[in-house]
Write a structure and sequence with these properties.
By secondary structure, the chain is mainly β. Helices cover 0% and strands 22% of the residues. The chain has no helices and three strands. It has a three-stranded antiparallel sheet with strand order 2-1-3, with no helix packed on it. A hairpin with a 2-residue loop joins strand 1 and strand 2. It is elongated, with a radius of gyration of 15 Å.
Length: 73
Amino acid sequence: GIFIYKNGSSVAGYNQYNNTSGDYNTIAISQLIYLNGTTDYIEAYGYTNTNGTMFYGTSVGNSQFSACLLRGA
């Protein structure tokens, strides 16, 4: 699963339940979050309950995070 938290509280998340075929899955979430510009913060979490390699950082796959600032004109 992957989750986004704002100030310690969950604001978005997704759980992917996998079959046992060993296939690689890609999951993604997107959320527009208002931040006050001074004290607000966000955190990103990934979770797996497998017994093998949990997140892939090789040529097989990647774990990625990105964010951007959106402002009114």
